[in-house]
């Protein structure tokens, strides 16, 4: 029996480019996968693309409050691992008095992950699958700052802080880590790449953008047995950008 054959992986933001490839990697490894996303149309596309039947569950939710987070956890077997990719990236508003976008970005990137993870920790104690895993998505924006995305950069920095605190709070039953991708070829980065292609490319030592699968395989590593002593880490998946 393979390592993931009896395990459920919950992936938030599962209809996105990285989420879809992460689901594919885990399904290929034998896992049950529960995709959670606020886009019903996106989930339908993901189900068609993955086409694996009973081992894939899709659940529409924006994870906007504790009840929705608990429902995502308890819609089937308790997950062995949560991969929290849900989030949005939007430019800051020019009107300093209008905090609606700031609040939206923080809720969609940080608050949902905080409540989902706390609920997971409370309900995970006593289950057979120990230690379990939490993997968050931070970003190169946390390391370097996004020029017109202060709120988004702050949110991804908050995720790094949560990882460090949860590493201490949730041990030894849950290992908590994060990936910090650079520019990945997904629908979220299409306009950014179109506007700033040459500048962005010049900052990447290996001179190309990442494919979603190149992030997904690092996430799988952080959930698998090979990472049994990796905890509290923010793994850069950025082609060397942040340290060049």
List keywords for this structure.
244 residues, seven-stranded parallel sheet, 8 helices, single chain, Rossmann fold, alpha/beta, 16% strand, 44% helix
Written overview of the protein:
- It is built from eight helices and seven strands; from the N terminus they run E-H-E-H-E-H-E-H-E-H-H-E-H-H-E.
- It has 244 residues and is of the alpha/beta class.
- The chain has one domain: Rossmann fold.
- The protein has a seven-stranded parallel sheet with strand order 3-2-1-4-5-6-7, with helices on both faces.
- Strand 1, helix 1 and strand 2 form a beta-alpha-beta unit.
- The model has no long low-confidence stretch (mean pLDDT 91).
Q: Return residue spans where pLDDT drops below 50 for at least 5 consecutive residues.
A: none
How does the major sheet shape up? 7 strands, parallel
Say which CATH homologous superfamily is assigned: NAD(P)-binding Rossmann-like Domain
Helix-strand topology string: EHEHEHEHEHHEHHE
Class based on secondary structure composition and strand pairing = alpha/beta
Q: Residue-averaged pLDDT, rounded? A: 91
Total number of strands? 7
CATH architecture: 3-Layer(aba) Sandwich
What gross morphology would you assign? globular
Strand content is 15-25%
What is the C-level CATH assignment?
Alpha Beta
Topology readout:
Layout (H helix, E strand, L loop, with lengths): L7 E5 L4 H12 L3 E6 L2 H11 L5 E5 L5 H9 L6 E4 L15 H25 L7 E6 L2 H5 L5 H21 L3 E8 L8 H13 L9 H12 L10 E4 L7
Parallel strand pairs: 1-2, 1-4, 2-3, 4-5, 5-6, 6-7
Helix pairs in contact: 1-8, 3-4, 4-6
């Amino acid at each position: 029996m393979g390592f993931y054959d009896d395990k459920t992986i919950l992936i938030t933001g599962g209809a996105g480019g990285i989420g879809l490839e992460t689901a594919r990697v885990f399904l290929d490894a034998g896992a049950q996968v529960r995709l959670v996303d606020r886009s019903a149309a996106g989930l339908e596309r993901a189900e068609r693309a993955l086409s694996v039947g009973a081992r894939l569950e899709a659940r529409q939710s924006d994870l906007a409050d504790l009840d929705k987070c608990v429902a995502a956890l308890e819609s089937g077997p308790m997950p062995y691992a949560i991969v929290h990719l849900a989030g949005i990236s939007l430019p800051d508003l020019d009107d300093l008095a209008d905090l609606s976008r700031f609040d939206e970005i923080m809720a969609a990137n940080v608050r949902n992950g905080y409540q989902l993870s706390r609920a997971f920790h409370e309900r995970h104690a006593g289950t057979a699958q120990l230690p379990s895993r939490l993997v968050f998505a931070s970003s190169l924006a946390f390391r370097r700052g996004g020029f017109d995305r202060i709120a988004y950069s702050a949110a991804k920095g908050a995720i790094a802080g949560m990882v460090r605190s949860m590493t201490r709070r949730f041990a030894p039953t849950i290992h908590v880590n994060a990936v910090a991708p650079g520019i990945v070829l997904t629908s979220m980065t299409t306009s950014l790449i179109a506007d700033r292609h040459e500048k962005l490319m010049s900052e990447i030592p290996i001179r190309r953008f990442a494919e979603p699968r190149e992030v997904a395989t690092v996430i799988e590593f952080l959930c698998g047995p090979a990472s049994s002593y990796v905890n509290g880490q923010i793994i850069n998946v950025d082609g060397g950008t942040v340290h060049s």
